[in-house]
Structures are given as structure tokens and as C-alpha cells.
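task queued by scheduler; priority normal; single chain, no ligands, no partner chains; default sampling; output format set to C-alpha cells
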Amino acid sequence: MTAPTRLAASAADPRLFELLAREGFGEDVFNERQHASCEFVELYVVQLALRLLEELDLTRDLAEARSVDELVARHGFPDAFRAPLAWLLAFLAQSGALGVAGAAAARYRFTGPAPAADPDAVREAAMATDPSYAPTYAMLARAAAAYGEIARGEDTAEQALFQNVGLWIGYFSNANGYYALSNRVAA
């Protein structure tokens, strides 16, 4: 199985919108555009994660089953990168991009050729659907860039993400369609 690579969102089951409308969440909150936009966010994260494997020079290693500990040792990553790498590999396994074996010490590998990563194409398609999601993509791109910095021991997650106040202000705004959706449901 490989990671999804579509550049068009699947249609939502119309029964979902009927159920949400009965609960007070009408078309102004949940609609096909919002559904497609959220699917693009998910696909973008998968594509960013695949690109991270390339940037961290892990793609070749994952042609064979490898544990997080093996990858950390092989690449000399700092111990602080162990948890982020474990999350990245588990996320890609959940997405279908990687296979996983073993319960106690998971071992990850591609089940076929490594899928090509093209997060930029996904972002472009997503912006054509709803440009209000731009702050979400900016936040995700920054988080992805931080992975390499943390892997090289150049930065910490806290420093990489929390020192950019403008990024957070843009994200936590109702002008950001992705955040507005969560904010509206929580309210």
C-alpha cells in the first residue's frame, strides 16, 4: 500500500451533512468545500512526512524493516529526535505509506517503491479550493522544516515553533478556515 497521492478530494457522504445539520451545524460550518479542504490538509501532512524521509536520508533505509532506535543510531540523530521520529514513522504507517511489523519494537519499511512526495502540488490544489487555509499550511510547513533542524541538533521543537508569533497569530484566527471550523464547533 502506498500513501495517497490524489489531488482531488473525495466527495463526502451527504448523510454526514444531514446528521450534522440536525445537531446545529449547518452548511455554513460543514459543507463540501470544508470537507475537501480538510482532506487536503491530511494529504499535505502525509506528503510533508514523505518529503521529510527524503530530507533526512531515510528513504533508502526504509527499503528494509528498521526500528526507530536503528535509524537514530545509523544517522547519529540526537536522543531528543527519537520521539519525533517515532511519531513520523507511526503516522506514515497509519497513512498506509509504510508497513509496520512488531509490537514491542516496531520496525517500519516501505511495502513497495517509496512514493514520490509533492506537498507543493497538494498545497496549490488546496489553495484553489479555499485560500483561507493558508495559515494552516504555513504552520505545517514550518513544523516540517523544524524536523530537520531538530534531527541535526540545531534547534528544539519549542524554539523552532514558538518563537514565530506571526505564525501563531495567523493560525489562531477565525480568518483561517481550518481553525475557524474547530473554534466554531467548540463554541
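post-processing summary
- Confidence is low (pLDDT under 50) at residues 1-5.
- Residues 32-55 form the longest helix (24 residues).
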